[in-house]
Automatic annotation (TrEMBL):
<keyword id="KW-0805">Transcription regulation</keyword>
<dbReference type="InterPro" id="IPR050109">
    <property type="entry name" value="HTH-type_TetR-like_transc_reg"/>
</dbReference>
<dbReference type="InterPro" id="IPR036271">
    <property type="entry name" value="Tet_transcr_reg_TetR-rel_C_sf"/>
</dbReference>
<dbReference type="Pfam" id="PF00440">
    <property type="entry name" value="TetR_N"/>
</dbReference>
<protein>
    <submittedName>
        <fullName>TetR family transcriptional regulator</fullName>
    </submittedName>
</protein>
<dbReference type="InterPro" id="IPR001647">
    <property type="entry name" value="HTH_TetR"/>
</dbReference>
<feature type="domain" description="HTH tetR-type">
    <location>
        <begin position="15"/>
        <end position="75"/>
    </location>
</feature>
<dbReference type="InterPro" id="IPR011075">
    <property type="entry name" value="TetR_C"/>
</dbReference>
<dbReference type="Pfam" id="PF16859">
    <property type="entry name" value="TetR_C_11"/>
</dbReference>
<dbReference type="InterPro" id="IPR009057">
    <property type="entry name" value="Homeodomain-like_sf"/>
</dbReference>
<keyword id="KW-0238">DNA-binding</keyword>
<feature type="DNA-binding region" description="H-T-H motif">
    <location>
        <begin position="38"/>
        <end position="57"/>
    </location>
</feature>
<dbReference type="GO" id="GO:0000976">
    <property type="term" value="F:transcription cis-regulatory region binding"/>
</dbReference>
<dbReference type="GO" id="GO:0003700">
    <property type="term" value="F:DNA-binding transcription factor activity"/>
</dbReference>
<keyword id="KW-0804">Transcription</keyword>
């Protein structure tokens, strides 16, 4: 089966072309929104032939999907401070700084808006967050191993609980969350996790006897 446009990772000169095109696409998304994306315009901005762009990405949604994949790859790695609360605070601050960045914040608003009405963009956005949650989940798993959180804690759910109120602030107020909001989000997620809110199942339960 042939690969979906925008999913094959190139190297060499092709990698440089990809970087230029994705940079141009991100600029347009941040400046003008999803509905103004046009492959011919992106090719012009990136100083790349239109044929190359159409052949590689095929459509605007294919280009956005590849942009999100690249953003996930380029995102900063997790911070490990030695405590769950410290790690979650670092995660919250990274999300806050991303949303507060003039280019990145506008880009995320545009992609989130597009995902609400375009299935392929929605899938690409979900993949982006799957990658980012998987990057930070080990911080929670290490906290469980250290005894800071109860066994059976759903690490991915805790990580999502940190960023959820920050995105909600952005989407409902139009303003990026501040440092105090990021700190509250991290502390709330940690407190809930420590209280067992995110424990799935009962890891301590032993199978009972079979009925006679």
């Amino acid at each position: 089966m042939p690969a979906e446009p925008g999913t094959v990772r190139p190297g060499g000169r092709t990698a440089r072309v990809r970087a230029a095109v994705l940079r141009a696409a991100g600029d347009v998304l941040a400046e003008q929104g999803f509905d103004r994306l046009d492959l011919a315009d992106i090719a012009r901005r990136a100083e790349v032939g239109k044929t190359t762009v159409y052949r590689r990405w095929g459509s605007v949604t294919g280009l956005v999907a590849d942009l999100l994949a690249d953003m996930a790859e380029q995102s900063l790695p997790r911070t490990e401070t030695g405590s769950v609360l410290g790690d979650l605070t670092a995660n919250a601050d990274l999300v806050r700084r991303t949303l507060a960045d003039p280019r990145q914040g506008a880009l995320f608003r545009a992609v989130i808006a597009a995902a609400a009405c375009d299935a392929r963009t929605a899938r690409a956005l979900r993949r982006f967050y799957e990658v980012r949650v998987a990057e930070w989940a080990p911080c929670v798993e290490q906290g469980v191993a250290r005894g800071e959180l109860p066994a059976g804690t759903d690490a991915a759910a805790v990580v999502r609980a940190v960023s959820a109120p920050l995105y909600y602030t952005l989407l409902t107020t139009g303003e990026a969350p501040d440092a105090a909001a990021a700190d509250r989000a991290a502390r709330a997620a940690f407190a809930a996790a420590a209280a067992g809110v995110y424990v799935t199942g009962d890891p301590a339960a032993e199978p009972g006897p079979s009925p006679a």
